[in-house]
Write a structure and sequence with these properties.
By secondary structure, this protein is an all-beta fold. Helix content is 0%, strand content 40%.
């Protein structure tokens, strides 16, 4: 599953933002974006997996802030594509109704 995390505008002294995504017991995935980024996309799954997010800010010298953390479970809320059309319809029998 692909998620989009909307980012708030950080304080003026922030040079970049760093998101760490931990899904279950897998290795964490770390993404760093500049301070002007308005969102970050990340992947998580399968359905039912526990996801831990950690976001922190870095200044120009590389100093990092305390982390903001949250957790959620992956839930499959996306329906499959609708059928495009019916296949051929063939009459196969006749039935008398009384």
């Amino acid at each position: 599953f692909v998620y989009e995390l909307k980012l708030l505008t950080p304080p003026a002294d922030v040079a970049s933002q760093r998101l760490t995504v931990l899904v279950g017991d897998a290795e964490p995935v770390v993404q760093t974006v500049d301070r002007e980024a308005t969102s970050i996309n990340f992947e998580a799954g399968p359905a039912g997996a526990r996801v831990k997010l950690s976001l922190d800010y870095l200044d120009a010298a590389g100093n990092d802030s305390e982390n903001l953390e949250m957790e959620f479970d992956v839930i499959d809320k996306i329906a499959p594509s609708a059928p495009e059309m019916f296949g051929e319809i063939t009459q196969v029998d006749e039935k008398v109704v009384e």
